[in-house]
Amino acid sequence: MASHLVAVKMQISAIVASISNFCQAAVHVAFVGYKDHCDGNDHIDVLPFTTDVAYFERFVRAVPAKGGGDVPEDVLGGLLAAVTQLTWPHNSTNVLFHIGDAPPHGRQFYGGRDSFPDGHENDKPLSVLFGLLHALDIQYNFGHMTGCTTEMETLFQSMCHECAVPMAVFNVADHVNIAPSVVSGVTMSSRSSSVSSAKPGRNNVVDVAPPPPVPQYQRRTISFSPHVPDWSTLEVLKGTVVSYMPPVDVDAIVAGTLDTLVRPIKLRVAPQPFAFGSERMVYYAQEYYKHSRISSVPSSKSTSSCASWTDVADEFETTSGDAAFDYQVEAMVAKSFVYGGEASAMLGGKPEGCRYMKAMECQTAASFLARLFNHEAKPRHKICFLHAKVVRVPTTIADSYVYYGWEKHFESATSSTITPLLKLTNNLGYVCDDESMADVVDVAAAFSHWTWHVTKGKLMVVDLQGQRTSKGLVLTDPAVHCVDLERFNSGTNLGVRGMDAFFQSHQCNTICNALQVSTP
């Protein structure tokens, strides 16, 4: 936990700057730190809301990350302090970001050694704590660090649902993810608040057409397993997989007219995800195929991304009767959205399928632009993106499907030529400040700037993350800001505001200068 406290102190300035640039409003920060009951009556530290970032840094620096005899800590006492000892303003975007590596006391939260297995006498019921969060209009975000908090997260999610408290979970096991996670959590809440405040009141007269309805998504119940499953115990599924053909030029990306390829697929998917981010969960998966027995069927026409899935896949028949053949196996990952709609939409046709097509469109556009960038810039670290596809698997319910994003599994970081997963930038101006990564961060930032330049300000590829290998940067799950907010993944496409946030923190480097890219 000590390294995460240091990271909060080091990253708070960048966090506040990013949020302020996006929301165009003053940002107030507060801090509540908790340890365990055995650490004395003063085991909770509270810093009231302030706009003085330097004061916040000094306060957090002085908080010791030590104490506690068993694994659980006074989590519920910390939450109580956050809602009762802090003065939360009205008519504001209020977000509580909770980073924790230990569960509360009580058997329902943790099955290991616990000094208070029945809970502590001062613990307030979850209904009271989350009822207060609802009354104060606070969104609750949790930063997941270890598996010790999995049961707690599940119970908190259930109570948030009962109390109508928005909740999101972010993976901050690597402290470099703290800043982008906090910024994403606040901006998600800000967008939601903006939509709510824009709704006309009963007595208001509105002389313009109302905006289209905003999809209402709920966080899906998640339980995790870090282990690769015993594949022999899992059913081989049959479905269809769709991918975009490489765009012919930049204009095709800007216009959104991309052809598709569809083919049958046999696959296995782990029952539980092994990782997650703010947008999607990731499952171990396998693809079974024979090169000589699979043909790709292109779509009959060039269409928009949403229509292409339903138009092509509904006409395609999967094959069967191949049980006697040996199939090659490839390690893959399947990705599903953390937030889903109602059950019928999650399993249905166009609404859910379109979300996956939009996400795939992000990666297709980014991949094509990366190839052009490598050709023009000839960077020391070339950029490439994993080939993204979308899988549709029929369920036992008539005319309903499960969808997955589909990619090759990243190579394991087992040598000095492959790094662990890196978060280089996000979609709100965050830039990795690790000096050891400065050379690859420069390439990533220049690439984002160049995508804006080459598309004449129509779009920008951001949120760059992946691995550095001996061949260059292998990236996945980018975001694309576009002047058309209905394009790409609408959850991460922040349009011109997102582009402005990039330029607020961007400083042109030697690659930008060599490419002679324009600026706003």
TrEMBL record:
Annotated GO MF terms: ATP binding; protein serine/threonine kinase activity
Entry annotated with the keyword Transferase: yes
Keywords for the protein's UniProt record, in alphabetical order: Kinase, Serine/threonine-protein kinase, Transferase
InterPro entries in UniProt: a-kinase_dom, Kinase-like_dom_sf, Thr-specific_kinase-like, vWFA_dom_sf
Region Disordered, residue ranges: 191-212
Keyword presence, Chloroplast: no
Record domain Alpha-type protein kinase: where: 249-520
Official protein name in the record: Alpha-type protein kinase domain-containing protein
